[in-house]
Specification:
298 residues, Rossmann fold, 2 domains, six-stranded mixed beta sheet, 42% helix, 18% strand, EC 2.3.1.19, PTA_PTB, transferase
């Protein structure tokens, strides 16, 4: 169990440093975040992009002794950075100053990319004031309306990552509007199907309950009031979102109404991927780097 992001950073530093390949690193904010992680011994970066610009920013920020791989444009930078990971020369891929479509094209390239056979998905982690541990949520950023088979991949991705971080048997809430299975309400039917998949051994080990409403997932008292015997109520590790809107709204509510802090990574490839926004604060970037490092499982 991680109480907060300080715990995640602490454990990641103990396991590191991890080699991170940064695609299109010719950006001051990107290099600033990478330097912060490097300075605390979390990562050993490889900066891929326009070498002259990268070295200018490195000099400005006082960054030395870092491997730089020259690339003429963002397409070449994304390709070279991805190949470093594919060839085992780095463990984590990080998106720099490159268009998302260009970056993902390199990641999904059949010959040179990082395909694993599973669907790519997003997992966020939240430190919510007043809560006893870090809360994970998936998928709130990539898959809009996943099918049942896609949900199986998304859940598998998240469980493998959380287990790599050191949580052996995560408690999972397969969210829906209520606890009754109704064929007309897809979220309830799919939640029950995921529980049954787990019972058949088709999903990594966890304690999963669903369909389960948010009030029961968050409160053992609510579970008792409804007469529900739950092993996870009030102690959920992973909130599993049936559709992107649920996870997205849930995360933003925690951020804006609960003053939570967060981090996020992309899962489902052969290696963890960091694909943050330029608007992310230095804190978010550092937390995301630490989360990606731990999800490597080394």
């Amino acid at each position: 169990m991680f109480k907060n992001f300080e715990d995640i950073l602490s454990v990641a530093k103990q396991r590191g440093p991890f080699k991170v390949s940064v695609a299109a690193a010719h950006d001051r904010e990107v290099i600033e975040a990478v330097k912060m992680a490097s300075d605390i011994g979390l990562i050993t970066p490889v900066l891929v992009g326009k070498e002259d610009e990268i070295r200018d920013y490195m000099k400005e920020l006082g960054m030395n002794d870092v491997q730089v791989v020259d690339a003429a444009d963002e397409v070449e930078a994304a390709r070279k950075a991805t190949l470093l990971v594919k060839n085992g020369e780095a463990k984590i891929l990080m998106k720099g100053f490159v268009n998302t479509s260009v970056f993902m094209k390199a990641v999904l390239n059949k010959e040179e990319g990082l395909r694993s056979g599973r669907l790519l998905s997003h997992m966020a982690a939240y430190e919510i004031p007043g809560q006893k541990k870090i809360t994970f949520c998936s998928d709130s950023g990539i898959n809009v309306a996943p099918t049942l088979e896609q949900k199986k991949d998304i859940l598998t991705n998240a469980l493998l990552a959380i287990k790599s971080m050191g949580i052996e048997k995560p408690k999972v809430a397969a969210l829906a509007a209520n606890e009754m299975v109704n064929p007309k309400i897809l979220a309830t039917a799919d939640a029950r199907a995921l529980v049954e998949m787990h019972e058949r051994g088709e999903i990594p080990s966890c304690i999963i309950e669903g369909p389960i409403a948010m009030d029961v997932a968050c409160s053992s008292e609510a579970a008792k009031h409804k007469g529900i015997d739950s092993q996870i109520a009030g102690d959920v590790d992973l909130f599993f979102s049936p559709f992107i809107e649920v996870g997205n709204v849930l995360g933003k509510a925690w951020l804006h109404y609960c003053n939570a802090t967060w981090a996020g990574i992309v899962l489902g490839a052969t290696n963890p991927i960091m694909m943050g926004s330029r608007s992310d604060t230095a804190e978010i970037k550092l937390n995301s780097i630490a989360m990606a490092c731990l999800s490597c499982g080394e």
